[in-house]
Amino acid sequence: MNVTNLRIASDNNKEIYVAHYGRIVAGFPKPSEDYAYDEISLDKKYLYKKHATYIATADGTSMEPTIYDKDELIIRTDLPVLNNSIIIASINGEEYTCKRIDLEKKILNADNKKFKAIEIDKIENFIILGVVKHIIRNL
């Protein structure tokens, strides 16, 4: 999976609020509560550290079924890289990739088993650019 359209989160200080209807049951239906709702700021929820946040568009199928082609990835540069984190990395300064990191084995794994693991030690210039924190998917 390649990552395209790297861009910094908006520097606009104006917050946008949208209706938040609470939790929606994905199993058995539950009675409505007269359509009561609060407001939620997506900026506050997902982009609250704008200087450590950027958004990229996924390109490819190597991270399916977790991340699909054209999903928007919200990436944080200030989070620690933990074993099994989904990261954005620069490989030899020429390409970006989105993979799951195995710190113990020093490999990058695709979630799609059709793709081979990448051995980090065999990469001449390897830089982690951030940790994928959220995924936005259009249906």
From TrEMBL:
Cited CDD domains: S24_LexA-like
Lineage: superkingdom: Bacteria
Residue ranges occupied by any Peptidase S24/S26A/S26B/S26C domain in the UniProt entry: 21-132
Protein name: SOS response UmuD protein
